[in-house]
Amino acid sequence: MTARRKTDRHRYNAQRISTMVRTVLTVIAVVIFAAFYLIGYDLPFVDNPQFTAPLFTDAVIWFIYILFGATLVATAVSVGSTVKTRSYSSMTSTGVPSVRIVVATVVLLVVTLALSFAFGSTEPLPVNGHTFSSSLWLRIADMFIVTSAVLIAVAVAAVAFGMSGLNRKLNGRRMKSEPSTKS
Hints:
The chain is mainly alpha-helical.
């Protein structure tokens, strides 16, 4: 391998690309949000002067749409490459039951989405001085809020459980109580 190829590969490794992307996105976000708050933030809304209509609202919304779309694409590519390259002969990865964790996460997500949509509120809400009463969109909004809260709570509980050392204590007792298979 030539010296040039080694430096190219070193120059564009995953960590560098990730750092560059994060830095560029952070700078763009800071510029857009600074413009949003510093330029034309107090402009009155044409239909109702009691409300404000910041000048850069569209820029913020489009930036969020672009980030959301890029996130969906990156997630699809990541899942696709993992499915193609992963060997499912082993249920664990370096001692972590990764397949069980993935299955439990997907099941929790789907069940939470379904239940929160089924039991979501359809009570009309006042939005910008008008009553919003579309039951489908009210349920969908409620579904995403409840699902986000449940997944965040489960993630915090999982991190607390992992950091507590309780898992290692339980596994240690289980290993001691199982008879040794070595002769």
